[in-house]
Design a protein that fits this description.
Elements (H helix, E strand, L loop, with lengths): L1 E4 L2 E2 L13 H4 L3 E9 L2 E2 L2 H15 L6 H12 L8 E9 L15 E8 L6 E11 L14 H12 L4 E6 L4 E4 L3 E6 L2 E4 L10 H10 L2 E2 L4 H7 L2 E6 L3 E8 L2 E2 L5 H14 L6
Parallel strand pairs: 7-8, 7-14, 11-12
Antiparallel strand pairs: 1-2, 1-6, 3-4, 3-5, 5-6, 8-9, 10-11, 10-13, 13-14, 14-15
Length: about 280
């Protein structure tokens, strides 16, 4: 693992480096991006940085200098990352040191970039519907913030029931998203996924799958989707297209024909360029 913080490459990223008064640490006042690397090269970095800007603005944070962010990316990828088939970049932008409460002070923002190698994702996964909902009308809906406690609880709930991902409905009862993934499913041969109005994150992989595979965006009851879907898959930066083999107590083809086609399409298009 390598990490870069506010302009400096850290000798030991496991040692303390962030101020204990950093608002990202005390109250989760920050945003982040996770970016896949292939042979040391980031995939769709431009799209991820554009979303980082949108998330920062949505949280009321100053917009980061993307040239400086790229310097951090280059620093952690230098000297070794090219030897890793796959890796994950984590770019974190927080409000910086502030009073230890919800109110912000005047501290400068904190920018951290970290990198570690990862393994290729499994071809299929199992998911569990959780009893909690996403608030599609909330202040942080659709923003990629560092406030992930809700996801941690949901993922633990899923793991206790044999799942590797948790699936949320929103307050209207519509299918929304996973803890770190977007959901696609097939009904009557048609590929579908929730709209952004559902409160789901505007995933970079989601956006590309819609463009490349022609999915229809529609909001439907999670209960009805779970019963009617003939196949389903998850997408995320590090999952790519991952078939769902079991959803709660229902087994699904893994992969089904549409999922298999989407995975093949993804692999083909991803190979064409690292900046789609």
């Amino acid at each position: 693992m390598r990490a870069w913080l506010n302009g400096d490459l850290l000798a030991d990223p496991t040692q303390g480096a962030i101020a204990v008064t950093d608002h990202g640490f005390t109250v989760g006042d920050g945003v982040f991006e996770a970016v896949k690397t292939i042979d040391g090269v980031p995939f769709a970095l431009g799209r991820h940085l554009a979303r980082l800007e949108r998330s920062a603005a949505g949280l009321g944070l100053p917009v980061p200098d993307l040239d400086v962010v790229r310097q951090g990316v280059e620093a952690v990828l230098a000297d070794g990352a090219a030897g890793d088939r796959m890796g994950r970049l984590r770019i974190t932008w927080t409000a910086g040191p502030h009073p230890m409460g919800s109110g912000r002070g005047g501290g400068p923002p904190t920018l951290a970039v970290a990198y570690s190698a990862i393994s290729h994702p499994a071809a299929a996964t199992t998911v569990v519907t959780v009893p909690w909902t996403r608030n599609e009308n909330g202040a942080t809906a659709g923003l990629k913030t560092t406030s992930y406690a809700e996801n941690v609880i949901a993922l633990a709930h899923a793991a206790e029931r044999g799942g590797t991902e948790a699936i949320f409905a929103n307050t209207a009862g519509h299918l929304c998203e996973g803890t770190g993934s977007n959901v696609f499913y097939v009904v009557d041969g048609e590929l579908r996924t929730p709209t952004l109005a559902s409160g789901c994150l505007a995933g970079v992989t989601r956006e590309l799958v819609i463009d490349w595979c022609g999915a229809r965006e529609v909001d439907e009851s999670l209960t009805e989707v779970r019963a009617a879907a003939s196949e389903a898959f998850l997408v995320s930066t590090t999952r790519d297209v991952q078939a769902v083999s079991r959803w709660d107590d229902r087994d699904l083809p893994s992969p089904g024909p549409v999922t298999e086609w989407c995975a093949a399409t993804w692999a083909s298009r991803e190979a064409e360029t690292m900046e789609p």
